[in-house]
Amino acid sequence: MSPKRIGGIITALMTPFKGNNVDRKSYRSLVERQIEAGVHGLVPCGTTGESATLGFDEHEMLIDYTVEIADRRCFVIAGTGSNNTREAIKLTAHAKKAGADAALAITPYYNKPTQSGLYEHFKAIAEAVDISLIPYNVPGRTGVNMLPETVARLSEIKNIVGIKEATGSLQQMTETIKLCKKGFIVLSGDDFTALPSMAVGAKGVISVTSNIVPEQMVEMFLAYEAGSMDRANAVNYRLWDLHTAMFIESNPIPVKAAAHLMGWISDEIRLPLTKMTGSNLTRLKTVMVRQGLIDG
What we know:
By secondary structure, the protein is of the alpha/beta class. It has a single domain, classed as TIM Barrel, CATH 3.20.20.70. It is built from twelve helices and ten strands. Helix 4 runs parallel beside helix 6 (148-154), helix 9 (214-225) runs antiparallel to helix 10 (229-245) and helix 11 (253-261) packs across helix 12.
């Protein structure tokens, strides 16, 4: 697939569990729902998919399974990140073998590499595996911020085709777009910055909210693409409280709770994350009732 096609609404998929195993039946239903709603792409095994607590066998199975279910009806960007460069290369090599269209690799967490280390990490993956590679910058979870100057250097490497930018800073996103080579794809990593990010040149969003309301996220993107900013803004404001609710606890706790409330999956989540309870669950239910997603 040409990297030029990567953009639009790309869902960061949840991984449903049952009895501490991946619930393949529910997962297939989730993927089919996304494709029927018209999303442009899917990301299995990202943060929202609880990649940190997936075994290597589960991780590889989910990539294989997602590619199989999607069957070229949308593109698949496989999550392949690790804070161990050799592991990231191994996961990325499997993504290529599985037939994924691209790989998404988070900046190494906990290690806190320098900007030079970040550059060499992604350069090593790109040189080892001939697949479209998209680094993922989310300092709020990793403890390290990949600066626009470093991203610009990486953009000169042929198969590093874009970045998922999740600092929440339009200033950093704008600077990144300004510095990177023409055609480099910048994707918002936050639902609440998706629309303003596109206004400064981003090509879409890797979305958590689209797990729950893919049709509405697609509606917003298509309105923006058609030049109907009033309509795009209306959808964005309509979804604003839901975007906020998706992050009242660590992702993916709220989105899995929401999917469970809608009867789609079990509420099972892997430690060290725990199920949403108490006042935050009440807040989530209130937002979902107001959105017409569940009965009051």
